[in-house]
């Protein structure tokens, strides 16, 4: 019964979920003028599974069985490469915006499988297996609520003055648990079926109540979604060719005494599992991230080349230098992403990309993204923020003036199409959204550096240096 | 009769000027819901002249005579420092957005005085002097239309397939000239009194018709302004504390057989003066630019410090490192700006800032601005693009949820106020506007580098190197 | 008869070769106090082939046949990976200094095979095949003389005032040709068996005489080697643990009417082949380069970690940040090198690494190398240039003073061993040598950028951008 | 009796001082083949005072009194600018190497005057005044021993396992004190008259014995100087035009029960003064540093321009770009240095440069120096490390070969003179010396960043940001 259609997916969102947007309760997500755009963007996931072009990539076949390839548990290099390609293809169909209604959820499921697998606790292992099978077989869309609102960054969960700064269990009952607290930056919550909740940090003694992982349907009583309107108002497809059609929505995700039955509780009161879950999750999720960044990078390089031609400056030395840098930047990220898969490790039969290489790819992407934006804006010109809008372009009186005065080496309509693509990608709401995501999504640059520091194996390099210095290598650690 | 009030200035905009915005003719600039914001932002210029706090800085007194200090012809270091301070103060009052209705116009007037002064041609000198006195004594607001639409960047004006790609004279009559063509990126045109038109590049033989400088009132027949709606729609003061109240508007400025009487024609048919005008203008205008960038830099540094405290991360080593970099970046620009004035040169009694130092300040500002943005976004967090909007904040039902869940080391209202300031400065339309201006306004980074290369005096350094190498210095050039 | 011993190799250098060093003719290379160090460094190549640890890597076996694995013509990914590993292992044995007596020569041979293979000219193909077999079967050491002295960089070979600025044919005889001119930067020439001479640039009509490739034994009459003494005088193994034992020598390689028999002339008078040879050669040679840079990078990272521990600062946040950067830098180069092999192409049965990826690896290495040096010096401290020398250390009177006063978290002897390793790697003659090689060897950074620009395939990225902009992709080029 | 001649200065070094170099005691510094070069380099200080070209800059006249201008206590902007110019001129005469036999000593004296002035303790104030007058009136040369050997970086002086890791008082007697311990990186010690000893860090309770400042003549019994031979062996003026004639020497400076009479003890047992002294000293010394870096920067820029011309590549776009960057880098440091003086503060009549601006200048210099080196090496070419040596150049047989084959756009002799200047500046021992000094001398880059963080006044920027955010500024600190 897997492989729903886009229509089935959208129909499934029509339930009692409690969403607030711009100060008001939203009763019908799909019918909402802005949230509906996001839901239909996400629905591309289901369209691809039925599109002959993508079937091989998007659908896993095992005998007569078929399910969404996002749910395929990676077993080897090839599975990870295919997963990366699928995420990349979905994002390209999404016009540089990731779909993210199965990517992140399966990242969480694979991580929980690995973490619980390490415990050898049969019941927990069965619960995550059952939940995974449920999601896969019903072709469900999932959000992952991980980042807690945190309160005072200098204090652990149990030290906060308000205990709800991290999501926690407030009551354990025979049939399940009651949870309170809030998560932030939860992507796609208003238009998925399930929310998987993971700890966002390592926990210590005393943090038991905050050490839990579980999943609930979005329409669970007490679960309230306060959706950000950051991308509100992008209504001009002339100047915003991407963002008028593609949108993602994040929520403040509040758990107000939400009941979770035991079969949805993957663990609770387990400080020892919290940090492991957080780390294992990002081992998958940063690989997802660098995979879904590739179309954005392609768009930046491609738009850079196109606007250089459209402006008639593509033969200038400094322009070639900038295009070369852009290409080198983008392809370094792509290369390291591929290599992270090629160097994968396997734990309990689950393949995961090499941690150092994945983080290196993400770090490279993140720390040079703003320079890429600057470079692209440099190539494009001031018209990015001083040009005409769609109402001008559509005016029969004004259009001829613009057509006369705005050509470069390309005619005005073609030049402005590329110019506006760049404006959408780099200067307006969507541009700001991508810029901040580059710095913060899937962990900040500092988090990536810490992950690299931890994952780096110094054996070869330190031993070599010690040998060159004429020192015993076995005493290095001294 | 100088020193108009803001009301007088705004009233003066009510004339036959021909403005188009979002596809429609605008009959009343001040009353327009969006252009009116820009006009009232510009009116701060006039308010300051009547504000006791700023009178000394904003008003020049010569005997019983008084006029706007923007019009004071700089004679020495002190005049340039005062001018810089005035521009900085105006921009700070404008909440990081320059006012620019006298700054750029006087930059152009001072440049024309210097360039025409070199010719020794009494009539031209008198014309510019008369026009300057007219503007000064009537306390007029001015735009400068310089950047031509350019068409094919590889061709000179006379080589373009459409001769209107650069503004040109199409007819010379007894009483004046007729001009055609279009300028782009003209700031503030809809709400100034006069438009000064300058060449945007050096001209050669054959480019006579495009080698002209003149000025016309905005309401001159045939002058049509197509205003960009880039900043359209910033209607939520919660998330956009600056840009809902402050706005600048650029136009595509079309000259459709505009008549210019001879006393407004500073020169025509003078290829030899075109490049000189363009270069001399930016000698003043880049100094204006670095002066008006200072409040933006202060806002970035100050917001960085504030959000680090609000988030409770201000004691982390990497945070201090980032704040130090931000401060060093901002203060290098400020220091070099001050130094450009201190090292000024004087031509024909007009003081102008040191060209190399001015460009070095601008280059420093421009090439590291995107890194500053990244750093500020890094300090702030993902909430920049996933946070609540004003309609949420104003909802009595939702506000308590936000107040509970969004505090850091500061309460949620104070933290969100700083967060939204940063979001406005770096991620939304206004953020994109400032980012592109950093790269392109007052000349691109490449243009600044070329100006630095030309202005660098290699004598000291090359002679020293030659002496160290044991070589004659007089043969260096060989 | 392949697989000579180191002693056989060194004995083979005793011939009539004409070498000048520090103003004097050198009659016995191996016995020379400085050139002998370089020759014995190169001899590591032969030692490895007889070392059981390296035999699998260093020796190619085909049936009963055995030859040095450098001569193995790469046919697939695995061959290229093995070649890279061999070059890396040789350089590690060389203590960060490449051996380069077969690496570069086989790069040249493989390139000539590909280039001549394209011509389909049986005689030329046979000549290169014969020469390759000769070198392989006699286990010869080879230098490649490519970079011409060039004279006026703005002129082509035929335009130079002195025609000898590029190596050229001055006479064609029945038995061979006579060549004149000089090459610069030729590595290892004094202690190899053969010199392969390639054009250093593309040639055009009129450049026929300069369009040739050939090979001669070093001891050919008229071939004169003027060896650089740049690394002269490294005589203190305490402060120079690497460079007192390992050395490479470059020559100005002068051809004064050198006779080359026809079977050693791969082509002559072929402007069309010159540029192709130069480009094809660097396709192999930059892959060699990034392979041999890896031990240097390992040494830098490893020494950075070790000195941080020795100094007792390894827990400081900024130190971890710097070590992370160093690791990320080094591993990006390593990763891209591996990927260049994994993405190889095959021409006429010869596998060559992906050109864009190879150049990206080299570009990454080169443009950030000086930052790595700065970082390492930062971690080490001023003692790099103010510390004691070996004569102090060896003085029974002084050593106790040094041992008392120079410990950090490690004892003085261990700390100084790492400190001096870093000093040798970054501040003294060898440090300068590696720094300049990073910028210039195997082509400058600008050359790498040009290669990247040419090798970048814009199809995917430009098509994607055009699609996002709503434009036909087939008209991009317009 | 001030204003000694160079001969008098050199004669004064002939005393019982205890110096070790390359494992041996040096009895005659001036006559030593290597240390003598350093002493004569330092003697340039005295030559300048008698050179009519420099008298106005180098000599202070007060009535009939004359003394070295280094000793002039700065009272205002002009004094600081003159001091900076004098240091710059001395370093230019020293061919990019600072003289440093009065610069650093007066930095220490001015700092002690300020710090002791704050205490109001008449006796201490008199002691420093007497010592200052003594040095000034006898025109003495001074070293400053500040950096302790430190041992375990994680422990305070009193916590070290060996108490001699920081210089300390071991006995207080009626006539003076006995001190033990060692300083490192002490510049010029072997060829100065006096050594001033300052604490290198802040001290706390328990650190009394290490909290002292004093001065002794170099020839004091128990004071032993172990000179580094890092710059040993620069004997070829062809390839090392600077470093064969100019040299500076650092010592490990050991105090083995050195007696200091009370009138040379500025304070002892004063933890409260230790940190203040260290900070106040660098307020002067970093200004000295940026002043003496200017000739090095000029040499880099000038050599860059010269070699671009010599190589014939000065018209290439990327070359102009690099030269522009070099000029911008150097002139930013120069500009900020000048500004640090212009913004000086005055304490007790002693003017000192603005702390933030001084550190900003030093930080700019230090963090981009390696990029400047890379850029210069890029412009020069591989010949920096593969070129001929002086013995080749002086050989009548070889010189003609080099002259024929090594010209570019300039003849070989002129091109090689510039090439070798760059090689000396960037690749050999002297290049390494300058590179490490850039990172570590006068405090590391991290120390400069900490100084900037502390010196930054956030009032203006934070208040502005708070106002923009609509928040009270007086609650910022909350």
Topology:
The structure is a homotetramer of 478-residue chains.
Chain A: H1 6-12, E1 18-21, E2 24-26, H2 35-50, H3 55-58, E3 59-62, E4 65-68, H4 77-93, H5 103-119, H6 122-137, E5 142-145, E6 168-172, E7 176-187, E8 194-197, E9 213-217, E10 223-227, E11 250-261, E12 265-267, H7 271-311, H8 317-342, E13 345-347, E14 350-352, H9 355-380, H10 383-386, H11 390-393, H12 399-405, H13 412-426, H14 429-440, H15 445-455, H16 459-468
Parallel strand pairs in A: 1-10, 5-8
Antiparallel strand pairs in A: 1-2, 3-4, 6-7, 7-11, 8-9, 9-12, 10-11, 13-14
Helix pairs in contact in A: 1-2, 4-7, 4-8, 5-6, 5-7, 7-8, 7-9, 7-13, 8-9, 9-13, 9-15, 13-14
Structure description:
The structure is a homotetramer of 478-residue chains. With 478 residues, chain A is α+β, with helices and mostly antiparallel strands. The first copy, chain A, is built from 16 helices and 14 strands. A six-stranded mixed beta sheet of chain A has the order 2-1-10-11-7-6, with no helix packed on it. A four-stranded mixed beta sheet of chain A has the order 5-8-9-12, covered by helices on one side. A two-stranded antiparallel sheet of chain A has the order 3-4. In chain A, a hairpin with a 3-residue loop joins strand 6 and strand 7. In chain A, helix 4 packs across helix 7 (271-311) and helix 7 runs antiparallel to helix 13. The model of chain A has no long low-confidence stretch (mean pLDDT 96). Chains in contact: A-B, A-C, A-D, B-C, B-D, C-D. The interface between A and B is large, with 78 and 78 residues.
């Amino acid at each position: 019964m897997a492989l729903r259609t886009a229509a089935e997916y959208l129909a499934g969102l029509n339930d009692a979920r409690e969403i607030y947007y711009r100060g008001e309760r939203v009763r019908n997500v799909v019918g909402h003028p802005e949230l509906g755009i996001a839901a239909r963007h996400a629905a591309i996931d289901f369209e691809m599974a039925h599109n002959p072009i993508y079937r091989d990539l998007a659908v896993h076949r095992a005998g007569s069985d078929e399910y969404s390839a996002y749910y395929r548990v990676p077993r080897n290099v090839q599975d990870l490469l295919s997963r990366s390609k699928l995420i990349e293809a979905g994002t390209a169909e999404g016009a540089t915006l990731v779909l993210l209604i199965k990517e992140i959820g399966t990242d969480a499921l694979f991580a929980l499988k690995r973490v619980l697998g390490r415990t050898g606790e049969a019941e927990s292992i069965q619960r995550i297996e059952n939940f995974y099978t449920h999601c896969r077989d019903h072709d469900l869309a999932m959000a992952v609520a991980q980042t807690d609102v945190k309160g005072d960054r200098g204090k652990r969960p149990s030290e906060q003055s308000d205990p709800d700064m991290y999501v926690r269990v407030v009551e354990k009952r025979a049939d399940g648990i009651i949870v309170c607290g809030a998560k932030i930056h939860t992507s796609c919550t208003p238009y998925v079926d399930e929310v998987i909740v993971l700890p966002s940090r390592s926990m210590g003694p005393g943090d038991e109540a905050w050490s839990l992982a579980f999943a609930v349907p979005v329409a669970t009583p007490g679960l309230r979604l306060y959706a950000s309107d950051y991308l509100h108002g992008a209504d001009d497809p002339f100047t915003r060719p991407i963002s008028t059609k593609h949108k993602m929505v994040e929520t403040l995700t509040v758990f107000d005494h939400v009941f979770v039955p035991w079969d949805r509780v993957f663990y609770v009161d387990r400080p020892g599992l919290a940090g492991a879950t957080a780390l294992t999750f990002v081992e998958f999720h940063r690989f997802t991230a660098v995979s879904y960044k590739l179309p954005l990078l392609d768009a930046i390089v491609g738009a850079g080349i196109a606007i250089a031609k459209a402006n008639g400056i593509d033969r200038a030395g400094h322009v070639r230098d900038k295009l070369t840098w852009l290409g080198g930047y983008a392809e370094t990220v792509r290369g390291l992403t591929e290599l992270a898969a090629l160097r994968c490790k396997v734990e309990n039969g689950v393949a995961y990309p090499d941690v150092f290489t994945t983080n290196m790819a993400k770090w490279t992407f993140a720390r040079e993204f703003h320079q890429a934006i600057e470079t692209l804006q440099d190539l494009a010109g001031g018209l990015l923020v001083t040009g005409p809008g769609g109402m001008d372009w559509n005016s029969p009186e004004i259009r001829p003036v613009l057509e006369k005065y705005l050509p470069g080496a390309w005619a005005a309509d073609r030049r402005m199409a590329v110019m506006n693509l760049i404006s959408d990608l780099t200067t307006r709401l969507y541009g700001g959204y991508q810029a901040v995501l580059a710095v913060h999504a899937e962990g900040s640059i500092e988090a990536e550096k810490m992950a690299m520091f931890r994952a780096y194996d110094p054996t070869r390099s330190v031993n070599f240096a010690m040998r060159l210095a004429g020192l015993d290598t076995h005493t290095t650690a001294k």
